[in-house]
Amino acid sequence: QVQLVESGGGLVQAGGSLRLSCVASGRTFSSYHMAWFRQAPGKERERVAAHTCIGTNTYYAEYADSVKGRFTISRDNAKNTVDLRMNSLKPEDTAVYYCAAKTAGRLLGTNDFESWGQGTQVTVSA
Fold this sequence. Notes:
This protein has 126 residues and is mostly beta strands. The protein is 0% helix and 52% strand.
């Protein structure tokens, strides 16, 4: 339903930073629940950050314990974008990062997202 396109992935040394961006289609982006997930080879998908809509232009940000304090999710409703700023990157952050969205209703769980981007590779070298 919603088209999501990620960008900003790449190769970075441990301790470095990257900013991922996701642009979404739709006229009601401000009401979307947005999130970033990642999946490394042989690992299960992990939600790293979520920016959920809890009211009109009101949002709640959540982070996985593994990235808390290092990653920041933010939204620009005027641009239909959600960003993930990643600082103090570690080799274990290496994964394909996916943008996800749910357009309506309350989130029913960590993985309750309807639309997914194709992913962007983040590689952190030691």
